[in-house]
């Protein structure tokens, strides 16, 4: 009996001893409250890929301010893949490319901050980035301290070269590392939607990509060598079903960077910008700001559409109806208002005759309703920036191919 009692006591001691490692709980999770509305800014990848340097960043920062884009809300400059050397230093630290950034990354970040803007960098959860530069696998806490010391504000974290890695664990590890480093940094999960980040990403990141890369076309698939594709913006718009309920303040579905000003015509750019605004997607420009036309600038800085995107309610829009290529998309807004977009996906001009009194819009995900038969709303055309009456009268218009008409219904 004494031997049995001794054995039990010893076993209890062993269990207690070995369980002590789980007593300490590491502070984890993203920095809360950094992206209460969808982030807005500029990213280098869509136009420049890895051909980036100090001059480009400074000129972009200058134009963001001088053009009025910063005043409209575009406050992040994010350097994508290719900002570092091909190897870490002897201590395992990332090294900003001294040829591309001869005055150092810290001096460049200080320049951007002095303009009243914020700065972001890119890396990858795998062993290497998508362009073959050093990835973060195994260096998460070291890299997080590196970013904190540089004083960056935004980290885009990609998903290349990740064989054998669990996505949720990889992104959670980096999120915890950023939190431990002590510098509030918006964490952008660029996981492409393969592992349903909307289901687990809310405590981990501030936004998450829902698709592969965007391509500057209305509704195409661009196939690359290596069995992967980039997608026209309408393909991305339709790619994921039933995920809007996961999106909201500080946890956004990211439909990828904007292609406004990149190879599409102005009508398609307008539709692209409208739908990203309706979907509460981050508005991250991806064009060469130094060469943009006045039409491109007008689209990117449309205050009425930006207000739809940045609405404090933070609810993603949804497709209400579709018939013969003409779609109606709706988005609930704060103060009981609604945004309504008529989208012509067809190749021909369409006629709209929308009798408001015959429609009740129900948002079952967020338990909201607009009974247009019993409630009269004033109507503002957001691209024309003018009031056009009320819902007492049916709305009639012609809409060209690939174009949109966006209205705001106001109580």
Description of the molecule:
This protein has helices spanning 2-19, 45-48, 54-66, 69-72, 105-114, 140-150, 167-181, 233-239, 266-278, 294-300, 303-309, and strands at 40-43, 76-78, 118-124, 154-158, 186-189, 207-209, 221-224, 228-231, 252-254, 283-285, 318-323, 326-332, 338-344, 350-354, 360-363, 368-371, 378-381, 386-390, 395-399, 404-410. Residues 1-21 have low confidence and may be disordered. It is α/β, with parallel strands linked by helices and 411 residues long. α9 packs parallel to α10 (294-300). The protein is built from eleven helices and 20 strands. An eight-stranded parallel beta sheet has the order 9-6-5-4-3-2-1-10. The longest helix has 18 residues, at 2-19. It is globular, with a radius of gyration of 24 Å. It has two domains: 40-309, TIM Barrel (Alpha-Beta Barrel), CATH 3.20.20; 318-410, Sandwich (Immunoglobulin-like).
Helix and strand content put the structural class at alpha/beta
Helix content: 25-40%
CATH topology heading of the largest domain: TIM Barrel
Oligomer: single chain
Low-confidence stretches: 1-21
Q: In whole angstroms, how far apart are the ends?
A: 82 Å
């Amino acid at each position: 009996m004494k031997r049995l009692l001794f054995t039990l006591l010893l076993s209890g001691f062993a269990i207690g001893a070995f369980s002590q490692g789980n007593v300490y709980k590491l502070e984890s999770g993203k920095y809360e409250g950094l992206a209460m509305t969808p982030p807005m800014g500029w990213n280098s990848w869509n136009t420049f890929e890895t051909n980036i340097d100090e001059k480009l960043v400074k000129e972009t920062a200058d134009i963001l301010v001088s053009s009025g884009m910063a005043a409209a809300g575009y406050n992040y400059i994010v350097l994508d893949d290719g900002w570092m050397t091909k190897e870490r230093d002897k201590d395992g630290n990332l090294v900003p490319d001294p040829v591309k950034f001869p005055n150092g990354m810290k001096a460049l970040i200080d320049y951007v901050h002095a303009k009243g803007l914020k700065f972001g960098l890119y890396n990858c959860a795998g062993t290497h980035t998508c362009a073959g530069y050093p990835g973060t696998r195994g260096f998460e806490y070291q890299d997080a301290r590196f970013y904190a010391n540089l004083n960056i504000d935004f980290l885009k974290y990609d998903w290349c070269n990740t064989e054998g890695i669990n996505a949720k664990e990889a992104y959670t590890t980096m999120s915890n590392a950023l939190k431990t480093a002590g510098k509030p940094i918006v964490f952008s999960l660029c996981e492409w939607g393969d592992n349903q980040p909307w289901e687990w990403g809310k405590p981990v990141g501030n936004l998450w990509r829902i698709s592969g890369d965007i391509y500057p076309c209305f509704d195409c698939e661009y196939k690359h060598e290596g069995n992967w594709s980039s997608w026209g913006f309408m393909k991305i718009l339709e790619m994921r079903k039933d995920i809007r309920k996961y999106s909201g303040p500080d946890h956004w579905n990211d439909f990828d960077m904007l292609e406004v000003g990149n190879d599409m015509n102005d009508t398609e750019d307008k539709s692209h910008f409208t739908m990203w605004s309706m979907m509460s997607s981050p508005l991250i420009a991806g064009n060469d700001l130094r060469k943009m036309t006045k039409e491109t600038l007008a689209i990117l800085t449309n205050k009425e559409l930006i207000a739809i995107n940045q609405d404090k309610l933070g609810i993603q829009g949804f497709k209400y109806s579709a018939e013969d290529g003409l779609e109606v998309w709706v988005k609930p807004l704060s103060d009981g208002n609604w945004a309504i977009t008529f989208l012509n996906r067809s190749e021909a001009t369409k006629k709209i005759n929308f009798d408001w009194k015959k429609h009740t819009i129900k948002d079952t995900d967020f338990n909201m309703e607009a009974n247009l038969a019993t409630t009269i709303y004033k109507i503002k055309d957001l691209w024309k920036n003018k009031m056009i009456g009320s819902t007492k009268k049916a709305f009639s218009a012609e809409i060209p191919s690939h174009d949109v008409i966006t209205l705001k219904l106001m109580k």
